């Protein structure tokens, strides 16, 4: 079924995870506007700027996360450049999103903020007070949430247009997993090389990665601290953590190594497309599934009224209320679908969506369906796509073991492809962007940051 109206992102992490990350790096003040006249510009990014106060807030947030562990952080100037580069990438992604027509309405921002408050088990008013205690304005926090949503939606569009997973790929991965459900928790350190690296650049990077490995082997620095201090990867400030990966998510060149390693081990330097890497096997677990997996499935039909640049939230809600009133007055559901529904895929089937699991079309839609009795019609339900009027037709218990496995494998392969393509896309956009550093090293020239400081080693 082509679920084009679904609010669930395809091959992308949930929006809420990105929103919660707002506080972790940007401190809710990624785009300060009400600054003092003396505020300096830290960097110019195309037609936008990053203010010194923005950078200072982001730095302060990182420092607070490493309170008591400051020795794990790189020198101040290197950390400042790492954080500034992240802020630059945010600016570039937001501009790209807006330039390609991505928009986020006020109701979506409010819904996301409510979700952040709920996940922290506080009210929105308490969240507002917390933001103020952290030294930020709520307007800045709203702006950062909106930008995170824009980036998430850009990434979703990118996945839908650039990433595809064939049935043959899924079949091959399932065959490879037949005798192994093992997953690996990995971390890495990347010493990057530019495209077309010269022999001198390769030799310098090789010396640096060897030095980092020597520090780890001697116990002078743990892996996470070395990643924060020396890695060129976007996840350096997270200690290089790559999370859990199944074997089909690990490049073939590294997969055999993982099978032979024990938790805690670190590979020798590995040469890849992006440069030299050190990989650490953190943990191993058995994620295999056995036996039937019974889930509740729902059968429902719906009417969709979309929101877009030409239809406001209030207009869509008013139209949905009118249609709901017609149904209450005795109008046939399939007739209203034919006349008014804007989900073209289900419109020709009377709005019928077939059988699906609760969260298949997103939490808002699924929650509304689960709350209905069979044949009951809902009030208008707001999702990312617009307003839905839903009628639940039935429920059943179903064994989805094979279906679930295929979906998981598809998600795994898609996530790996998306990660590779998205990182390549960001590097391309970063290279095309005009960036003028106004503070720190290199502020006199428009260049990407220099390599992080090399570790001292016994070999010089």
UniProtKB/TrEMBL annotation:
<feature type="domain" description="PpiC">
    <location>
        <begin position="295"/>
        <end position="394"/>
    </location>
</feature>
<dbReference type="GO" id="GO:0051082">
    <property type="term" value="F:unfolded protein binding"/>
</dbReference>
<dbReference type="Pfam" id="PF13616">
    <property type="entry name" value="Rotamase_3"/>
</dbReference>
<dbReference type="GO" id="GO:0003755">
    <property type="term" value="F:peptidyl-prolyl cis-trans isomerase activity"/>
</dbReference>
<dbReference type="GO" id="GO:0042277">
    <property type="term" value="F:peptide binding"/>
</dbReference>
<feature type="region of interest" description="Disordered">
    <location>
        <begin position="438"/>
        <end position="460"/>
    </location>
</feature>
<feature type="signal peptide">
    <location>
        <begin position="1"/>
        <end position="32"/>
    </location>
</feature>
<dbReference type="GO" id="GO:0006457">
    <property type="term" value="P:protein folding"/>
</dbReference>
<keyword id="KW-0574">Periplasm</keyword>
<dbReference type="GO" id="GO:0050821">
    <property type="term" value="P:protein stabilization"/>
</dbReference>
<comment type="function">
    <text>Chaperone involved in the correct folding and assembly of outer membrane proteins. Recognizes specific patterns of aromatic residues and the orientation of their side chains, which are found more frequently in integral outer membrane proteins. May act in both early periplasmic and late outer membrane-associated steps of protein maturation.</text>
</comment>
<protein>
    <recommendedName>
        <fullName>Chaperone SurA</fullName>
        <ecNumber>5.2.1.8</ecNumber>
    </recommendedName>
</protein>
<keyword id="KW-0697">Rotamase</keyword>
<keyword id="KW-0677">Repeat</keyword>
<feature type="domain" description="PpiC">
    <location>
        <begin position="181"/>
        <end position="283"/>
    </location>
</feature>
<dbReference type="Pfam" id="PF09312">
    <property type="entry name" value="SurA_N"/>
</dbReference>
<dbReference type="InterPro" id="IPR023034">
    <property type="entry name" value="PPIase_SurA"/>
</dbReference>
<dbReference type="InterPro" id="IPR015391">
    <property type="entry name" value="SurA_N"/>
</dbReference>
<dbReference type="GO" id="GO:0043165">
    <property type="term" value="P:Gram-negative-bacterium-type cell outer membrane assembly"/>
</dbReference>
<keyword id="KW-0143">Chaperone</keyword>
<dbReference type="InterPro" id="IPR050280">
    <property type="entry name" value="OMP_Chaperone_SurA"/>
</dbReference>
<dbReference type="InterPro" id="IPR027304">
    <property type="entry name" value="Trigger_fact/SurA_dom_sf"/>
</dbReference>
<dbReference type="InterPro" id="IPR046357">
    <property type="entry name" value="PPIase_dom_sf"/>
</dbReference>
<dbReference type="GO" id="GO:0030288">
    <property type="term" value="C:outer membrane-bounded periplasmic space"/>
</dbReference>
<keyword id="KW-0732">Signal</keyword>
<dbReference type="InterPro" id="IPR000297">
    <property type="entry name" value="PPIase_PpiC"/>
</dbReference>
<keyword id="KW-0413">Isomerase</keyword>
